[in-house]
Amino acid sequence: MNETNSPSPQAGQRQRPVDEVERMLPPGQLFTLGLQHVLVMYAGAVAVPLVIGGSLGLPKEQISYLISSDLFCCGIVTLLQCLGIGRFAGIRLPVIMSVTFAAVMPMLAIGANPDLGLTGIFGATIAAGILSTLLVPLIGRLMPLFPTVVTGVVITSIGISIMQVGIDWMAGGKGNPEYGSLRYIGTSFLVLAFILLVTRFTKGFFSNISVLLGILFGFGVAITMGEVSLDGLNDAAWFAPIVPFAFGWPTFDPISIATLTVIML
Known about the structure:
This protein has 265 residues and is mostly helical. It has helices spanning 27-55, 60-82, 104-112, 117-134, 136-141, 148-161, 163-170, 182-201, 205-208, 210-224, 254-264.
């Protein structure tokens, strides 16, 4: 009997089941799961510039530009995490990076300062990012000081603080004259019930894409209710480059920088 020995992995290389070809799903299922991942990320990524832009009273065009810049940065960070570049090794897992809500309230406070505004938010974000990157080796050594009870409390606190955003959307959105209408709240619960039913009574692939199916179901319900508007879509460009400092040169305020650095750490 002839035997063929598979080559053993070289020393220093890790066997990662996620990279094994025989474990990969068919292309159609991979695309569907990837689409679900993008759409789930998209909601959270778009929410932050919508909240900040709306609170600062920015016009629709500038809010759209903020969203585009936001998604562009999400793409860059996703590549850094999935592929890694040089010393920025990343986690090397198939994930999509989104936006944190933890910094929303400090950013709103910075933007509300007439001497800082939106450029103050940008300056604090840039400086805090550089400082946080330089402090990564130190933070790695401090990890024993952050057990699960600490990280759990922090994540729970962040979740509770941003519940208002989800509740506002569930009620129809701030500024809506029908805010809190039963049709909006009922639709939200209907979509939630649909996702739970799909998760409970289906198995395998369909159970894994329950959120995507819920998004499509909710979109269909919104269309039948006449709540979907495509006004302005024809005026949007298919491709628009992201220009650095399009809103002006960043304003570097020490207090704002310190605040966002603490939030990022």
